[in-house]
Structures are given as structure tokens and as C-alpha cells.
Amino acid sequence: MVTSISKRALLLAALFTLALGGGACSEEKGLKIKSISPKTGPANGAGNITIHGNGFKKGGAVGVEVYFGDRKARFLRFEGDAKMVVVPPPGEVGQTVDVQVIFGDGREHKFAEAYSYIDPKAGFNVNALAPGDEK
Predict the structure, then answer these.
(1) What's the predicted TM-score (pTM) here?
(2) 3.40.1400.10, 3.40.50.300, 2.60.40.10, 1.10.3720.10: which CATH number matches 31-129?
(3) pLDDT at 58
(4) How far apart, in whole angstroms, are the C-alpha atoms of residue 43 and residue 23?
């Protein structure tokens, strides 16, 4: 009788472990947006912005659009499954805008007040190059 209970407990523990492990793997494979870098750029819209995440190429980001405030960025490319690169549109010096990523299937992600425009003559701050908070 002890053997029967031990086998059941062992089987339940194994099933529970598999269930937890399977859930974590499927979430990691899904489309996810984590951060953008850099967080500042010239007001003339020059330079590239990298959007970090995962699931971009495999069943993910078909028909992606990226907006800086209400202005659409120019999509450049995917870099593997975890990065997409865009060129921000021009903005006003000192303006901070939301960055919104919208996918063809209707899913979207917004980074509130995530990008600031600077005077192109002023140069860049080292802190602006840090990826920032993961979401």
C-alpha cells in the first residue's frame, strides 16, 4: 500500500513539474516586447532605435507598425527573433513621447513617455544608451 501511494505521489509530482515547465516555455516563445534603446535621439529623426523582445519572426510581428507619439517610424529590419530596428520620425527638441508597437493581428504594446528628442547639435548622453526597465 505504501508503494502505491508513493507511485501516485511521484506521478503527480512529475505531472505538476511538466505542467509548470511547459507553461513557462510557451510564454517565452510568444510575442513579447521588453524595452527600447536608446531612449533619446535627435529631433531631426536620424539614428536607429532597437526594440527588444522575443517572438518577432516566428509567428509574430507580421505587419508591425511603430509610432513615436502620433508619428509613424520607418521599419528597417528584424535582427533575429529578439530585436527589431526602426528609424524614429522627427520630433520637437525637448519633447518626450510614448512609443507604441502595433502588430497586424491587433496586438499592441505602449511604452509611456519612453523616448525624448534632443537637439542634434547637443550630442548624446551615455545614460540614453542603456536599455532601461524591462517590462
Answers:
(1) 0.67
(2) 2.60.40.10
(3) 61
(4) 43
